[in-house]
Amino acid sequence: GDMRNIDPYLTAESSDADKFAAFAEGVIKGTIKNFHFTPQAQKMKICDFPYDIIAQTETTSQQMREIQEHTNTTQYDFPGSRSDNGFDSVATVHLAHEFYDKVKPDIMDKIYQYYKWDFVLMGYTKLSNPNFPYLDFEQDFEKEFGPLN
């Protein structure tokens, strides 16, 4: 769709980060609706299905190697991940900051609330956490995201 419906000041010359900020605002405000933007926690139905693992895309290659070692399946090739294709987590962190820094603080707060359980399930931190995007086993989710109810 036309992003100017969300932000009339966007132009073809607007930065990708500015366009993303408008997109994020549209998703949170309900101007942009699509099943793909439904929180993963809702789609996964974690209370109905006994998952063995929930993995982050940033560390898929490492996690798959560990799983294959644990299951004695290292002889099989697993399809490549972003890391195998040159998209490492350092690039992910850089891009996340570049794009999310353009999102208005009140919209970021709404993003964190709307996707709270995704952050909790995936072990993600807020961008302001120095460990972002890695799992932070010392993370106080309620301190970072508010009550988990």
* Class derived from helix and strand content: mainly alpha
Helicity, in percent? 40-55%
Q: H/E element string? A: HHHHHHH
- Model regions low in confidence, pLDDT < 50 over at least 5 residues: none
Strand percentage lies at under 5%
CA radius of gyration is 18 Å
> Which oligomeric state applies?
single chain
Tally of DSSP helical segments: 7
- Main beta-sheet annotation: none
Chain-averaged pLDDT:
79
Question: How would you describe this structure to a colleague?
Answer:
The chain is an all-alpha fold. The chain contains seven helices and no strands. The two termini are 35 Å apart.
Short description:
This protein is mostly helical and 149 residues long. It is built from 7 helices and no strands.
List the helices and strands and how they pair.
Blueprint: H1 16-29, H2 40-44, H3 60-71, H4 89-100, H5 105-114, H6 116-122, H7 141-145
State the main characteristics.
44% helix; single chain; 149 residues; mainly alpha
